[in-house]
Amino acid sequence: MVQKKVVIKNKIGIHTRPAATLVKLAAKYNSEFYIMKDGMEINGKSIIGVMTLAAEQGSTLQLRFDGKDEKVMAKAIVELFDRGMDDV
Amino acid sequence: MYSKTVNNGMITITGVPASPGIVFGKSYCYLKKIIKVDKLSILKNTIPQEIVRLEHAIERSEYELKKIISFAANQVGKTEIKIFEAQILILQDIILLEGIKSRIKNELTNAEAVIDSEFSKYQSIMLNAKDEYLRERAHEVEDIKNRIIRNIQQEKLTSRIDKNVIVVSEALTAGDTILFSRNKILGFATDGGGITSHSTLLARSLQLPAVVGLKDITKNINHGDLLIVDGYDGIVIVRPTDDLIKKYNQEKLRHFEFEDKLKTLRDQPAETLDKHKVILSSNIEFIDEVPVILKQGSQGIGLYRSEGVLISKYSIPTEEEQFIEYDKLAALIAPQKIVIRTFDVGGDKIFFDDIHEENPFLGWRGIRISLDMIDMFKNQLRAILRASSRKNVEIMFPMVSGFEEIIAAKKILSEVKQEFKNKNIQFDENIKIGTVIEVPSAALLAGDLARELDFLSIGTNDLLQFVLAVDRNNEKVSKLFNKFNPGLLRLISQVISQTKLQNKKIAMCGEMAGDPLATILLIGLGLEEFSVIPDILPEIKKIIRSITLAHAKKVAEHALSLLTSIEIQNYLKEELKRIIPDIPLSQ
User: Given a cut of 70, is residue B567 above it in pLDDT?
Assistant: First the structure.
């Protein structure tokens, strides 16, 4: 299991479009992927789940990866967050 | 905003005007019947059957949505289609789907009940969010949930409704609006919804009069009741009296008559009897309005509220997206000009987050945000410059309160221009820039600001509120909110003369520019451009063409000598009636 902490960098936070980007990337990997925020845990491969996080700029998310490709997956996902979800 | 009066069975409710126009007709109550979902136990051997029902319903829902998209593509813009695309993404959410399937298997429960419970979980999280944008999304989740359940229950989509009715509903989704528009409905009125809701945007695109934010209209109306929807003033009248119907018919006629008059006025210049020419342009927010203003004979767009591109998107549009919109507008209106006002919204609109300010009117908005968020500002300026190659685009900065903001904004603009030169990107090097005069400190500095700029445009709505220290939405003081306040008029007079002393152009884009009572006065004060809501344009032109500059100057002089709003208003009314006796003045 790999755990990571990320801070939302893109200006509008995670709304529909960034959520779709995240879910599409996550779908490329086999490991399980969970996102935790304010005591709520959602599956990072579910767009509706990611949308409901209402993660705004500056908020911190805990990420958990579990599975065979957890390391590469964690790296790719964390990089996406660092790039501001490739948004704007 | 909201108010309700009941009088002998006639109910008048004021909400938010969402889409202009007046319609009168029978109501069609489209109440979102809560699809009744019974939780049923299923037998183990019927699980596969239940899963197949679920999969078919999802397939069918996706098919319906795609059909709506292809239908919508011909009727509305790309931005609106994104709403449906987001719904398709949800339908393709494997985690969600697998979760539903496994609950059907493990709990031996019927698909509808599981779907209902799963979606409702997300919906309630969204509804409880502080983020307004996310709360709006909850309606779309509701829409998609109902669509799947309805398909499971093999109910037909409620799309075959009577023609020529006014749809009354709690809230309409974008999907509803599109489907209704097929059936030639007259307009709609809803309990919920704000100006940011997608159905509102669609109503405007489809030119259906609409009033939203009526809170309890659905509880005050029966299926088939007559009602009037006044999308100009945001008023809905249920079971109107004959007198009121007559009044609104006259009002409608007034609009029709003016449309007739347009035909004669359209190609005539906005000039006084003594050949003093002014510019009569329009305020717009959406590209759909361009055909209308062209029909009205508008001399370009004096104010384009660029935040229109923000509202119809899920996020801040990219430079490319903005460019496409601005370029389309510039091409449509060419060779006439378009003045693009950079984003004039509060932080809440840009971030869709819970940026709450004690006093947003005096807060972080307009140029203040742009100067704090240089990347966003530069992106917007790039998009505007790229759209300027026809040399008919101008830039206007909102909410300027001081000289240093103009200097800062100009510096950023020149950086972007330099960047374009280095990259050999075509743009109008002499693009005109100006500012809205809406903060008293800026009004007092008008002459100095004008020296740095090409034009000033007086925004009377905010200026009035700031000069008078009156919140127009506060009922206790709203009677003081009068644009004929002598203090305000003197300030406006100063702004006009100071700007002209610098040989710079002076325009007005606030409500006052479109108030027929103010036209003679403003001509007399020397205003050079009136940018008004398209609807009123012919009326203003008619007044301008009925007076002489010399007389208007005398009227302005006398008006400025009066010391109360009421006296000024009465005097201007008398003057106007004298010049055009048959003018249909509202109020």
Answer: yes
Question: What's the one-letter identity of residue B255?
Answer: H
- CA B343 to CA B346: how far, in whole Å? 9
Q: Which residues pair with B12 in a beta bridge?
A: B5, B237
Interchain contact, A27 vs B314, CB within 8 Å:
no
Which domains are assigned to chain B?
3-30+158-244 (3.50.30.10), 44-152 (1.10.274.10), 273-435+510-579 (3.20.20.60)
Q: Nearest-CA neighbor of B42 among B112, B90, B139?
A: B112
Q: Residues 36..55 of A with a Cβ closer than 8 Å to B: which?
A: 40, 43, 45-49, 51-52, 54
The Cα-based distances of B413 to B342, B371, B408, B430 in angstroms read 12, 11, 9, 12
ipTM: 0.81
User: What is the pTM assigned to this prediction?
Assistant: 0.60
Segment (H or E) for B24: strand B22-29
Instruction: Give B346's pLDDT tier (boundaries 50, 70, 90).
Output: low
Of A45, A47, A54, the CB nearest to B131: A54
pLDDT digits (tens, 9 = 90+) for B48-89: 988 988 998 898 888 878 877 776 666 555 656 667 777 888
Q: How far apart are CA A67 and CA B294, in angstroms?
A: 62
Q: Residues B56, B255, B509, B558: which is the catalytic one?
A: B509
Q: Please, which residues have CB within 8 angstroms of residue B269's CB and are 6 or more apart in sequence? A: B277
What pLDDT score does B587 carry?
38
Q: What is the maximum span of chain B, computed from C-alpha positions, in angstroms?
A: 92
User: Which residues, 6+ apart, have CB-to-CB distance to B85 below 8 Å?
Assistant: B69
pLDDT in tens, B425-463: 999 999 999 999 999 999 999 999 999 999 999 999 889
Whether residue B353 has pLDDT greater than 50: no
The answer to whether the beta carbons of residues B463 and B510 sit under 8 Å apart is yes
Domain A2-86 CATH assignment equals 3.30.1340.10:
yes
